[in-house]
């Protein structure tokens, strides 16, 4: 393993400051271009849209034979702050005509995901889009319960916070 493979942020030589950052940490430090990433993704992960370093769409599917998710493809939306990869991206499942929100005890029906990796306290700059997708594939693959989180209906109805600002309590790693 080399230092380059750890994907630590490189110096921001072309940016003025974090407050007037025209290129953003995200753009300056993205480990791969969208094209390079598309060619190197593991099975079950497809980069759909990556026109800029603000929002990407990625499709994932579970590659094992878990009957809960067999033949399903799910769409993820990655929203990057200018501080990425120091801060985690905001990642949610997106529902459209071809992509449902997966049923899982840690995925709310509005697409918000309760996963410590996506929380500021669980995030590390060595993570990237691929590692998040693989973690979500693994989370789905190991699930045996087709259910929503407890309190899903009230959470979806009354939550006004962005996913990155929600303070989840991470206590259940059984699903």
Automatic annotation (TrEMBL):
Enzyme active site: 114
UniProt GO molecular function: ATP binding; transferase activity
Pfam assignment, any one: UQ_con
InterPro entries cross-referenced by the UniProt entry: Ub_conjugating_enzyme, UBC, UBQ-conjugating_AS, UBQ-conjugating_enzyme/RWD
Sequence ranges assigned to domain UBC core in this UniProt record: 22-175
SMART domains in the record: UBCc (SM00212)
Keywords: ATP-binding, Nucleotide-binding, Transferase, Ubl conjugation pathway
Protein family: Belongs to the ubiquitin-conjugating enzyme family.
Record-given protein name: Ubiquitin-conjugating enzyme E2 2
Source species of the chain: Phaeosphaeria nodorum (strain SN15 / ATCC MYA-4574 / FGSC 10173) (Glume blotch fungus)
Highest classification ranks of the organism: Eukaryota, Fungi, Dikarya, Ascomycota, Pezizomycotina
